[in-house]
Amino acid sequence: DNNIDTATPITLLGLGAMGTALARTWLATGTPLTVWNRTPHRAQALAGEGATVAATAAEAVAAGRLVVVCLLDDESVGEALDGIDLSGKDLVNLTTGTPAQARARADWARARGARFLDGGIMAVPPMIGVPDSGAYVFYSGSEELFTEHREVLAVPAGTTFVGADPGFAALHDVALLSAMTGMFAGVAHAFALIRREEIAPTGFASLLADWLGAMAGSVHLAAEQLESGDYTKGVVSNLAMQVAGNETLLRTAEEQRVSPVLLTPYMALMARRLAAGRGDEDTTGVIDLLAVG
Ligand code: FVH
């Protein structure tokens, strides 16, 4: 991209799998890059690729205004930046954490005179810097910081700003990861069902992927139902029908000698909603039952 602002020097703290992948994309565009890692040997290869290696985190931070951190967790961010002068810095935190951790880290950074942007990376390291890989980063916090550095932040992956609340990037990140976790649970159950039969998992995987893709669009209907408050709106397969269908799923699990443990918590909530007289709704009503406190 000829429009990339390669003049903005970047300091990057953290050269784990993700940090190293990020670093290589900036080096490839000629962006001046200063790196630091707690365990120094991880910086050696990058030094050969054009990065300036700082001996300490403080030295790295002093090298430029835009400071990106990609460390293990929020605690390691606190440890790495402890006692370092952040006044006038633009701190971009690409470390995965909770919304509350991001909000507290934003307050912490502001109290030290830095602007703060939190990021939630929706990619694994091999997707970073690969056009059309689908990699992107949710950002939230200082919109001024985001706008000012948008081009250089877009080098490793796409960018999606989701609000001034510094917790929103983490919230979006974790919401998507949570949905993925539920999907992986369903996939594990499906493979367990076919595993003892003469059905090739590789062939079955294609059917599974196509089916999950076809069903994914249902999230839009659920969103419309949530926004309207009418969970019967546009319903295709109502809750009463789906709860009856659950019996077939559970009996099949029993026949195939597969534990239903990954399915039953969700089915129990569906049954509770049905028992409350909501059989004509979609499964969207289950969301109401998840609120605690
Ligand atoms: N890798 C992935 O698939 C996921 C994809 C989505 C985003 N995550 C998050 O990205 C953060 C970094 O992940 P990573 O893959 O780079 O993780 P590691 O390879 O384990 O590297 C961890 C780095 O953190 C450094 N570190 C750990 N503790 C401290 C500390 N107390 N002080 C300073 N640095 C610390 C560690 O240093 P070292 O062990 O080499 O000395 C690595 O640089 C993470 O939030 C993922 O959830 C990745």
Structural commentary:
- It is built from 12 helices and 8 strands.
- It has about 290 residues and is an alpha/beta fold.
- An 8-stranded mixed β-sheet has the order 3-2-1-4-5-6-7-8, sandwiched between helices.
- Helix 10 (about 240-255) runs antiparallel to helix 11.
- It binds ligand FVH.
- Ligand FVH binds near residues 38, 72 and 73.
Q: What would a concise description of this structure say?
A:
The N and C termini lie far apart (49 Å).
Key descriptive features of the protein:
single chain; 293 residues; alpha/beta; Rossmann fold; N-(1-d-carboxylethyl)-l-norvaline Dehydrogenase, domain 2; 2 domains; eight-stranded mixed β-sheet; 49% helix; binds ligand FVH; NAD(P)-bd_dom_sf; oxidoreductase activity; NAD(P)-dependent oxidoreductase; HIBADH-related
